[in-house]
């Protein structure tokens, strides 16, 4: 049975979602509330995201599938009133990529359509809070087909770029975060620096 408080928070947020999508949000909220460890949160939510990704085309609205020829598109699906959770539908046209970035949060990503490519970067030293002198080495590559799920936790933060190479079809993915993902650190790998930037999204 759904937690009544979670239902109320979805309704109070003004977000119109399908019953199945609301159920996923309810479950994600209940499994990620503090003091839950981020590793336990993603462990519990990952199977739910896999199930959601398989049926997401039936639940997502047209507004969730908007795209832009200039850059990848973040379409807000849900944001908790207390900013403890947010869900976005991202649309990637061929050749569109994120910059190298981190998240400052745990996250669960599920692919709905196409193949999403993730290229990771590994810090060569501990994060001491400085925004310069950051040595990053290229890490591995993960190809995520439909229904594939990827997760990450902070401390150390997950640093990567994500996108779709030119020549591949469009991809659509769902991104769940343990906060409102309105900003993140952008990394300049060659300069060894990072800076906090605001990240835009489309309201539903």
Automatic annotation (TrEMBL):
It comes from the Bacteria. Fe cation binds at residues 101, 103, 160. GO terms for molecular function: ferrous iron binding; oxidoreductase activity, acting on single donors with incorporation of molecular oxygen, incorporation of two atoms of oxygen. Keywords: Dioxygenase, Iron, Metal-binding, Oxidoreductase. SUPFAM superfamilies: RmlC-like cupins. Belongs to the cysteine dioxygenase family. This is Putative metal-dependent enzyme (Double-stranded beta helix superfamily). It comes from Roseateles toxinivorans.
């Amino acid at each position: 049975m759904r937690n009544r408080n979670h239902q109320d928070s979805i309704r109070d947020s003004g977000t119109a979602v399908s019953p199945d999508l609301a159920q996923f949000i309810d479950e994600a909220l209940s499994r990620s509330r503090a003091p839950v460890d981020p590793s336990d949160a993603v462990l519990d939510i990952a199977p739910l995201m896999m199930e959601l990704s398989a049926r997401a085309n039936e639940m997502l609205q047209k507004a969730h599938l908007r795209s832009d020829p200039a850059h990848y598109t973040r379409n807000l699906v849900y944001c908790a009133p207390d900013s403890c959770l947010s869900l976005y539908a991202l649309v990637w046209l061929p050749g569109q990529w994120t910059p190298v970035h981190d998240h400052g949060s745990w996250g669960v990503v599920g692919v709905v359509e196409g193949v999403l490519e993730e290229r990771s970067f590994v810090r060569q030293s501990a994060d001491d809070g400085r925004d310069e002198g950051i040595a990053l080495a290229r890490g591995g590559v993960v190809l995520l087909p439909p229904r594939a799920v990827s997760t990450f936790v902070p401390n150390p933060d997950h640093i990567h770029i994500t996108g779709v190479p030119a020549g591949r079809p469009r991809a659509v993915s769902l991104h769940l975060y343990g906060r409102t993902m309105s900003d993140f650190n952008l990394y300049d790998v060659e300069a060894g620096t990072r800076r906090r930037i605001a990240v835009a999204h489309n309201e539903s």
